[in-house]
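We modelled the chain as a single entity of 270 amino acids. Its sequence is:
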Amino acid sequence: MKWINHYLLFCSEQMKQLSYPIANFCSLTKLSLMFFSSFVFSQHFEHDITGYWQFDHTNLDTTNCIYEKKPIISEESETGQNVFIDLYLLNDSIYWIDYPCNMQSKSQISIQDDSLIWNGGYAKYFYTLNKDTLTVDFDNCISATYYKVDKNEDTLSVLLTLEINPKCVSGVYYLITEFEPEYPAYDQAYAAIPPIKVPAKINLQNYYQAKSLLEKNSILLTVNGKERIFHLVYHDFCNWDMDCDYYLVLEPGGWWNGDPFTVQYRSKKL
């Protein structure tokens, strides 16, 4: 763009010298050139990648990632994050979102030219932006492509606040009374049969009941005719090979004086 600057300087000199034919021509083209210059700079040097980016596909390239003669191929980036879900960039943060149910993680980022800088320099990924298509080159042979879309702002607000959308965890939960190896137990010592009688099921069919559980990390269960507080110590979506949607792991509150124990509920009846 140096030629534009030189031309504008030449015009200014001609106007000072009152060279009218050239000065008149300059006056007609000066604003056009300045507009053209600002347009080009805005298109190529001011990438706005804030907003919601929906995952579309990945490309694997093993040509430049050989380590000990074996290709390094993984679905995770160096940050340990699964790249097969959506991105939401807001201010100085990036959120990894499985819309509309789960905000998996959050990281601090900064944008420098064509790079995304993670957590002050922990990781650096190059990106390219082509209209509404964003491609990020991760450092383990994966590049992921995302498309910019609009998502419900209320749903995003809930995910950023609670991490889990209560609508996705509403339902009836049934007590697990037998040890199941495929279930990700909170700890290996949880009792198959709790030392006290707890409800066989928990009804969280109401959105606000599920929201309250996630916000307060506690729930009231009836034990021996009395409502007792149980704390939510772990919860997550079930894996693809598990016959359930969601599971909860609870432990008794301060009212319990016996040996510690946990109870686990799943969202589909055994």
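As a brief sanity check on the tokenised model: Residues 2-45 form one domain. The two ends are 70 Å apart (CA to CA).
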